[in-house]
Design a protein that fits this description.
With 262 residues, the chain is mostly beta strands. It has no helices and 20 strands. A hairpin with a 2-residue loop joins strand 17 and strand 18.
Length: 262
């Protein structure tokens, strides 16, 4: 995992002029072998930032922010970027006076832009947030905008919920950095990726601890996939993660808890 040091000016400038926490950011999926760190930022309450998104690859020889396709709607209030187990980024909230739609972005196909998804049922602005659940759905809540009364929570079910999903039949409860382990699954021949997603800690549009880390697949046998855990704590800080297997069509299993140790 190569990390550059220095400063790189964003294209849209300050996303929260006047203070506060507007817009959102996320560390994009870290995948073997290089675990190249890329960061996405989106939205904000400045005129230039409200509907914009940018990405930077910190493993590049000369890192620089690059423009991404605009969001479908302006999001000057607090929205949250949430990593999905298929490697895509989910954003919702931050649309003033309207529930607004969710949007999904694929970092592996930036030119495709943001896919507009279903509208939420409730306005989600100040102090709203979303977080990934173990089944791969996203829980959205917050924004006490009407008389200080919180709005009900709601869940978003990404498109993979309509597809047959691979199944984790067995996996270790604990694995050390760099260690080999097996994931038992009847779908072994269709597994394209094994990923760990660190549980989130989210508030005010920021999910401070979410992290998507891919594991190297070293072999496949009937009923099992051989995997290497991430190499160290720089890539995957010790702690609990949701383990997912993802098939070649990028449909993930339901997550299973696993603890990564030094």
């Amino acid at each position: 995992m190569i990390t550059a040091s220095g400063t790189w000016n964003t294209i849209a400038g300050d996303r929260s002029p006047g203070g506060g926490e507007k817009g959102t950011s996320v560390l994009l999926p870290l995948r073997p072998a290089s675990y190249a760190p890329r960061v996405l930022i989106a939205a904000g309450n400045s005129a230039a930032a409200q509907q914009s998104a940018e990405m930077i690859d910190l493993s590049a020889a000369t890192p620089a922010w690059t423009s991404l396709p605009d969001l479908n709607v302006a999001r000057p209030e607090q929205c949250t970027a949430c990593l999905l187990p298929d490697g895509k980024v989910f954003i919702a909230g931050g649309v003033p006076g309207s529930p607004g739609p969710a949007e999904i972005f694929d970092p592996e196909n930036p030119a495709q832009g943001w896919m507009r998804c279903a509208d939420m049922s409730h306005i989600r602005g100040y102090h709203s947030s979303n977080i990934l659940l173990a089944d791969g759905s996203v829980l959205m809540g917050g924004d006490p905008s009407v008389g200080g009364t919180p709005t009900p929570h709601e869940r978003y079910f990404p498109g993979y919920f309509s597809q047959p999903r691979p199944v984790i039949a067995g996996a270790p409860a604990t694995v050390a950095h760099g260690a080999a382990f097996q994931v038992m699954t009847p779908n072994a021949t269709s597994v394209g990726e094994v990923v760990l997603i660190r549980p989130g800690a989210v508030t005010h549009g920021w999910n401070q601890s979410q992290r998507f880390v891919g594991c190297a697949i070293t072999g496949t046998a009937p009923g099992s996939v051989d995997v290497l855990a991430p190499p160290d704590g720089n890539v995957a800080p010790p702690g609990h993660y949701l383990l997912f297997i993802v098939d070649g069509a990028r449909v993930p299993s339901i997550g299973r808890w696993i603890r990564v140790t030094p």
